[in-house]
Amino acid sequence: MNRWTCGMGMALAAAFAVLCAPWAGAADDGAKEELKFELPEAAFGGTPLPYTSEILEKEEFRDRPPFMAPKGTTLVSKGKPVTASAAPAMGDLKMVTDGVKNYASSALVELEAGPQWVQVDLGSEHELYAVLFWHFHAEKRVYFDIVVQASNDPEFKTGVTTLYNNDVDNSSSLGEGPDKEYIENARGRLLDPKGVKARYVRLYSNGNTNDEMNHYVEVEVWGRPVVK
Predict the structure, then answer these.
(1) What one-character-per-residue DSSP string does 97-156 give?
(2) Mean pLDDT over the full length of the chain
(3) pTM of the model
């Protein structure tokens, strides 16, 4: 190959790279987008929480940074059916996915004392990119033994992925977890499932710093349907 041919080849390759670069950049830039969470109004007032723990997360008052997810990710849990380990002592299970997140007692679902769970059925398998939930935010509380799992098995006997677990002593018989306890607030607790595929999301708890009961205001699952 002579120098002219070699030079022309290199020039064409360079030109091709320049022309294609904007398209490649646009594809990368458009791969993800910010999820816009609608947060409830915060409750103000109340007394400081008289609770300490070695695994209690330091309270955060700043807004959380933007949460990015693949394009096409939407809220897939609103209005979806909810089951639980026990009949509610207060409220209706459908309130867990009804979109009402305020701190009024009318938005609260209460389950009896002891380890309990609520489970959202998305109707089909989804890629999960965010789980956001509120136990209670009318005042400061810490809920115990929080475990969040995802599976395609409604009985959660097979194919279970644990997304969060702060049960340090296995009191809920789901294994010891590495995650922190935290003080409830109006921002809720946000988890990143990183695209795990599942139809069902189950959330466990085991009482709180105020009483032995279990509460849920809202559970949101964000994702995309799995195309088969």
Answers:
(1) GSS---SSGGG-EEE-SSSEEEEEEEEEEEEEEEEEEES--SS--BBSS-EEEEES-TTS
(2) 89
(3) 0.86
